[in-house]
Write a structure and sequence with these properties.
By secondary structure, this protein is α/β, with parallel strands linked by helices. The protein has five domains: 3-192, Spore Coat Polysaccharide Biosynthesis Protein SpsA, Chain A (Alpha-Beta Complex), CATH 3.90.550; 204-270; 275-404, Glycogen Phosphorylase B (Rossmann fold, 3-Layer(aba) Sandwich); 420-553, 3-Layer(aba) Sandwich (Rossmann fold), CATH 3.40.50; 583-638. It has 18 helices and 34 strands. Strand 23, helix 11 and strand 24 form a beta-alpha-beta unit. It is elongated. The chain starts with a strand and ends with a strand.
Length: 640
């Protein structure tokens, strides 16, 4: 076997199909093509025969290339990226060049696609590729020259550069191909470099700015250790050959990276690290009261011990809601450019546009309402739409199909006494005028009542009404009430009614469509109120003298909802564990520390007692620092 072509692939269709069809007519008995499927969501099946496909668990491009090298039988090895292309005579041209028995072959190449235009035309073996063009796809190697060198599987960027340095091309017989036969696909949004520069990839690029290098031997020891997991670049006006085997050396120029070493310089631009979680819940603005807010809280209660859950928001939100959620999970307010990376992204409102800087394995749009306005539109960027009821799903049938998962409610024992209770935002559809009419007709019928209304709205009171400030949990009032009163125009689920029924408290409600679905029965666990709110004397008598007693349980519905959410999110191991004993954290977002009375810096290491460390971690300002790195490199600041 003369030539082995190794193609690492992860979810690369349909680009890979195009490449495979381009290579198929070029195959000969002297050539093998090894496609390493790196755990794609769906196993790759080549559209034509003659290609060896090896499937493995996802481990990154380096592990895929290494597996390909272990299976390669050719005397020479070439690498092609799955989303790139080659010329129609790529194999023929390479084989002809190999007749001169070189150790290395350099390929001329050019870009194509929707990104930047560029080409490299080699004119001799002495020509060098551009500084940042240390890529294995523009080189062909004699297998014996590679030997036991392998790609560094710990690195997510610049693994090509390290491989090229370790193979060492100096002093070997070289050849070149002087016209482009490799075509590199560019994309202005999704290319690796572009995503890295936006901070969407969890990669490290350490940049040293050293106009003069005074102690290169000490520096190279430090660089070699860091190069095991990070890309290291030294900017200097000198030309220290000793560093070239350990890192990239360039003349000072504008550059982006995650860490700056050496001297301060305005040439360096910081790349923010991504904010990461397994499950990320997003809501633009978190209100003081609402069913969406209840859903988020209940979800966090149920899943905080199973998954790394994070709540993120963008606009000014209710301080008490934020504090309540932060007792369960990390809660973070986003700035404009901070990248978000997660397995599952839950967008709470259809009126909230999903941020462009979100990179998620699965985007789920929740729709907590019925379509009451024509301009209510499901956000287009999603993998699944989840409705809390068939009523809600039906109202958006002209836009999407989606799936119904009844909202999660929290059970518990409850007590009761005589009272009317309502918890409502009092927007137009919640029935304020209807409530006034009900209060008047009940009063006219001689029914005495105290009506506690929990709302953030400033409304004119009516007879019997006591306005209460919003509370996170009104269940103790519902449990003590004779009736929960909810007189909306429409509801897609209505937590208040369900929670009342679970507490054994009957409900006074309008005949909203979702009632049957959530288990309400007129006369059994409450009474229907006319749409105008006026009750006749008979109904008034029933409300006063025939208070229903019943049993109601949503245990099965809750179990089914929780089960389905676990299926959607999928199995994963929770990473966060409570801190035990003194903890060291690394600052990833600067903030003013009230204990130290100063601003912190990115990369700073702080040691503190665990409760305070968890507060800073949950606020999104820090991550747990690796102890080994701390002991070796850190100057620790201790918070008393």
């Amino acid at each position: 076997m003369k030539l082995s072509i190794i193609i690492p692939a992860y979810n690369a269709e349909p680009f890979l199909d195009v490449l495979v069809r381009r290579l198929f007519p070029q195959l000969t008995k002297e050539v093998e093509v090894i496609i390493v499927d790196d755990g794609s969501n769906f196993p790759y099946i080549a559209p034509v025969k003659g290609f060896k496909v090896i499937r493995k668990p996802n481990g990154g491009v380096s592990s895929a290339r290494n597996l390909g090298l272990s299976k390669a039988k050719g005397e020479w090895v070439a690498f092609i990226d799955a989303d790139d292309l080659v010329a129609e005579d790529y194999v023929e041209t390479v084989l002809k060049t190999l007749e001169d028995d070189p150790d290395f072959v350099y390929l001329s190449w050019k870009t194509f696609g929707r990104g930047w235009d560029y080409e490299v035309i080699l004119k001799s073996v002495e020509d060098k590729f551009p500084e940042f063009n240390l890529c294995v796809w523009n080189r062909i190697y004699r297998r014996s020259m590679i030997g036991e060198v392998r790609f560094n599987e710990k690195k997510a960027i610049a693994e090509d550069a390290q491989f090229i340095r370790e193979v060492r091309e100096e002093g070997r017989k070289k050849a070149f191909i002087g016209r482009p036969i490799y075509f590199y696909r560019t994309d202005p949004r999704n290319g690796l470099t572009e995503r890295f520069n936006r901070g969407e990839l969890d990669m490290e690029r350490i940049v040293y700015y050293l106009p003069e290098i005074k102690n290169p031997k000490k520096l190279i020891e430090e660089i070699r250790e860091e190069s095991e997991e990070a890309e290291v670049i030294v900017m200097t006006y000198e030309d220290p050959k000793i560093l070239e085997g350990a890192c990239m050396v360039i003349k000072p120029r504008p550059i982006r990276g995650t860490q700056l070493r050496g001297q301060e310089t305005n040439l360096f631009e910081f790349i923010p690290k991504p904010i990461k979680a397994q499950v990320m819940i997003y809501q633009g603005r978190i209100h003081a009261i609402g069913g969406v807010e209840t859903w988020m809280y209940n979800f966090c209660v149920e899943f905080k011990d199973e998954y790394d859950v994070m709540v993120v928001y963008r606009e000014d939100s209710d301080v008490k809601q934020i504090k309540r959620l932060r007792e369960l999970v990390p809660v973070l307010r986003l700035s404009k450019d901070e990248p978000l990376v997660c397995n599952v992204f839950l967008n709470m409102r259809i009126t909230d546009r999903i941020p462009d800087n979100v990179r998620a394995g699965q985007v789920i749009q929740l729709c907590h309402l019925c379509q009451m306005k024509e301009n209510y539109k499901i956000q287009p960027r999603h993998d699944l739409v989840v409705f809390p009821s068939e009523a809600a799903k039906k109202s958006f049938a002209n836009q999407t199909d989606g799936e119904v998962i009844p909202n999660i409610t929290l059970g518990g024992e409850r007590s009761k006494s005589l009272l009317f209770v309502t918890a409502s935002r009092f927007t137009y559809e919640k029935g304020e005028e209807r409530m006034r009419n009900l209060a008047k007709s009940l009063t006219d019928a001689g029914v005495n009542f105290v009506w506690m209304v929990f709302t953030d709205a400033r409304i004119e009171p009516f007879p019997g009404m006591i306005r209460m400030e919003p509370r996170f949990d009104v269940s103790q009032f519902i449990m003590a009430a004779d009736y929960l009163v909810q007189l909306s125009d429409k509801e897609s689920f209505c937590y208040s009614i369900v929670e009342a029924l679970e507490a054994g408290t009957p409900v006074l409600t309008t005949n909203i469509e979702v009632l049957k679905e959530i288990g309400f029965q007129d006369g059994e666990n409450g009474y229907l109120i006319p749409w105008d709110g006026n009750v006749n004397p008979f109904l008034a008598h029933m409300i006063r003298d025939e208070i229903p007693k019943f049993e109601y349980s949503r245990r099965i519905a809750n179990i089914q909802s929780l089960k389905r959410w676990r299926e959607i999110i999928g199995p994963m191991e929770k990473q966060w564990k409570s801190l035990d004993g003194e903890a060291t954290v690394e600052i990833i977002r600067p903030y003013y520390d009230t204990v130290m009375k100063r601003m912190t810096k990115v990369g700073e290491l702080l040691t503190m007692e665990p409760k305070r460390a968890e507060q800073i971690l949950f606020a999104g300002f820090a991550k747990v620092a690796p102890c080994a790195k701390v002991a070796k490199n850190a100057k620790i600041n201790v918070i008393q």
